[in-house]
Please model this.
Amino acid sequence: MKNYLDKFAAYLIQLADGERDEVIEFYREYLLDAGIQDYDDCVAELGTPKQLARKILADYSIRFNENLTADQGKRQKSRAGVRAIWWVVLALLSTPITIPALIVILAVLFAMAAVVFAIGVALVATIAAVTMLAFSAITAGVGVFTQEIWVSIFYIGSGLAIIGVELLILPLIVWFIGVMIQGVSTVVQRLYHRFVKRNRAERGGRHHEENR
Model:
């Protein structure tokens, strides 16, 4: 059991010390109460240390993401959403599930990745093209300034106007990216709850807390 818990603890370095100690103590008490000492018996009961750790990290990431409020900042919310997606995907892929379920999970993840990638490429390409157009207009305006002052002012003004519109739209783009991240996070979390079941230790602990 000690070897199992030591390996389990090594995979939980992302957690704060207090949280990690609490999790390890919970499973130590469970294994002691169940009379499980052998490493292979621990694996049979809880899964490998890596599988269990990824599930714990996914659970913590989901709870952290859900507990964040809008007042705590869009950037922090987006980072929490990305972290939740990462750990949930790892937990899903390390969970022993049936081949049809795995195909469904991989298909959904691939489809979401393709959509996000396509939208990201389109946004970057559009912003780059518009920015180049703005700087080209400004450059052209500066080039003809001594020859056609009104044409120069028109080009420079158009370029600055384009940049101004981009700056105004930028917060909307950031908001849209945040919404997209949270949407992907929600879908991934639903897959997680659908295919990753609570182990007996978690069900027992939850039942005990509800009866306290």
Q: What stands out?
A: The helical segments are 2-10, 17-34, 39-46, 49-67, 74-94, 99-143, 149-195, 200-210. DSSP finds eight helices and no strands in the chain. The chain has a mean pLDDT of 82. Residues 70 and 77 are 8 Å apart (CA to CA).
